[in-house]
Amino acid sequence: MGLNVVMMGPPGAGKGTQAERLARERGLLKISTGDILRDASRDQTPAAIVAKARMDRGELVDDETMIAIVRDRLMRPDAEVGVVLDGFPRTVVQAEALDRILEERDNGPLVVIDVVVPEQELVRRLAGRRICSNCGTTAAPGDMVANCTRCGNVMVQRTDDNQDVVLERLKVYQHTTRPVLEYYRSRVTFRVVNGAQAPDRVAHELNTLIDDAVAVAVPLKAASEGSL
Ligand SMILES: [Zn+2]
Fold first, then answer.
1. Which entry of 90, 125, 130, 191 is annotated as an active-site residue?
2. How many CB atoms lie within 10 A of CB 146?
3. How far is CA 75 from the centre of its chain?
4. What's the CA gap between 149 and 112, in Å, rounded?
5. Which pTM value belongs to this model?
6. In the annotation, is 15 catalytic?
7. How do residues 79-128 score in pLDDT, each as one tens digit?
């Protein structure tokens, strides 16, 4: 039986790092929105072509297109083991579609993780991030790498004057994500992890929470199927 995990959390919470680690440790396929869109524009599926055109115009990819792309990805054989989703769903419409896709796939429970970090700590992490002086690639919070992993140029410390930008980004995140969190919050497989801890502690807590959620979800599903 597979396992599917949605990782939610604001920028700077470290959810990308945790998603990657979780996928590696459990042998799941990690799917991030960025990866999907990059792959999709290479794959040249109809939805991918629409997405690419929108991104090229600097527009957001609409729900319908995003759902089609994620659906294509989830239906491929390598996703059968289960997935860790990072950056999807972003809207309630996407979350509802994901439920339908997973039901159709019928491959293990969906566990939703919200990585929570106090705003003050997020600002500290994000405003202190190092950024490439050439291409603008940002390092992970706390990563003191000297050269850009993409183009090799010098990484510099961002200045404090971007605190307002960081706060605005966090506000936008909270505003757009709240409905999705509310959509999931009442589920028995919804869990909150304290992302303010050291990454190893977060990973440990995350594993415990997921095991716990699976232990609750699997008997429930078996019972509901038995009663049909
Ligand atoms: Zn660079």
1. 90
2. 8
3. 18
4. 31
5. 0.84
6. yes
7. 999 999 999 999 999 999 999 999 998 889 999 999 999 999 998 888 77
